[in-house]
Write a structure and sequence with these properties.
By secondary structure, the protein is α/β, with parallel strands linked by helices. It folds into two domains: 12-130; 138-280, Response regulator (Rossmann fold), CATH 3.40.50.2300. Helix content is 49%, strand content 11%. It has ten helices and seven strands. It has a five-stranded parallel beta sheet, with helices on both faces. A two-stranded antiparallel sheet has the order 4-5. A hairpin with a 7-residue loop joins strand 4 and strand 5. Helix 1 runs antiparallel to helix 2 and helix 1 runs antiparallel to helix 4 (88-124). The radius of gyration is 26 Å and the shape is elongated.
Length: 282
């Protein structure tokens, strides 16, 4: 058996979210109608028990001393049928719910102490350490006409904890396109979607599939602004690549979704924290 350990360091935002989740469980548990227990075990209470356990695991992590101390909050009803005793389940769950509410409130107090510690550490951290935490999680998504690829990439970025910035979803406020792009000076990375939306060729040549011209313009813009190591181009199909952009990472959008792992690697190489469990999850 592993020795219980302390929970890992968490951001103030994640601790605050944990306090909110615990409050939701407290409200749900407090609103449960115990009279439904007269007929026997309650499916609703079983779902609430699973939700409480999930919340405690999210807040404290499994195999931690805090989780071991508080996990009894998820035990809300007896596993015995005892169908002949109509009061048994009522009385048993009444005691369990009272205990669970106290434990959930204790969990909130624990997180509030953790939050105070985290805020103190952030306030007293050396400047160079604090600056490393300012790396923006906003990712600019440059795209053409392929809405399916755009939405797939944007939703993937959201799933792994980034905020995709899609230009046409932002208010124009009478600005030109380049002025809108310049507004997002705090993005930390750019994903450029090279999809065969146009055709082009040298004079007299055979037209070949190519990305839209605005996509290539914005690719060059972000290479200059962020640096090549913070730009990843995802390419779908047979798309002509300008020779001037040699050296940029090209990642094919494949049916096996290998591009997700490649994009995660590029984000991590650029200094971002990447949750690989989320990257590899279907």
């Amino acid at each position: 058996m592993s020795t219980p350990v302390s929970p890992p360091n968490r951001s103030t935002a994640s601790i605050e979210k944990g306090i909110e989740r615990l409050e939701e469980r407290i409200v749900e548990l407090g609103a449960f109608d115990l009279r439904t227990m007269m007929a026997g075990p309650s499916p609703q209470l079983a779902r609430l028990s699973a939700a409480i356990q999930d919340t405690l695991e999210r807040c404290f992590g499994r195999d931690t001393s805090a989780y071991e101390r508080l996990k009894a909050a998820a035990h809300l009803q007896s596993n015995l049928s005892r169908a002949s005793d109509h009061n048994y389940h009522y009385q048993y769950s009444q005691k369990c719910i009272s205990r669970s509410l106290e434990l959930l409130k204790e969990a909130q107090r624990t997180l509030r102490e953790d939050l105070a510690d985290a805020q103190h550490e952030a306030a007293t951290a050396p400047v160079e350490v604090a600056q490393t935490n300012l790396l923006s999680r906003r990712v600019f998504v440059v795209h053409g006409h392929d809405e399916g690829v755009r939405e797939t990439v944007a939703r993937f970025l959201e799933k792994i904890g980034f905020e995709p910035i899609i230009l046409h979803e932002q208010a124009s406020r009478n600005r030109t396109v380049i002025e809108k792009i310049e507004t997002y000076h705090d993005v930390g990375f750019a994903v450029v979607l090279l999809t065969p939306d146009d055709e082009g060729c040298v004079k007299g040549g055979k037209p070949e599939p190519r990305a839209r011209q605005n996509v290539l313009l914005e690719l060059g813009y972000f290479m200059g602004r962020l640096g090549r190591d913070k730009v990843c181009a995802l390419k779908r199909g047979d798309v002509d690549i300008p020779s001037d952009f040699a050296g940029v990472v090209w990642v094919p959008i494949d049916a096996s979704n290998g591009w997700k792992q490649a994009l995660g690697q590029e984000l991590e190489a650029a200094g971002h924290e990447v949750d690989w469990n989320k990257v590899m999850r279907p």
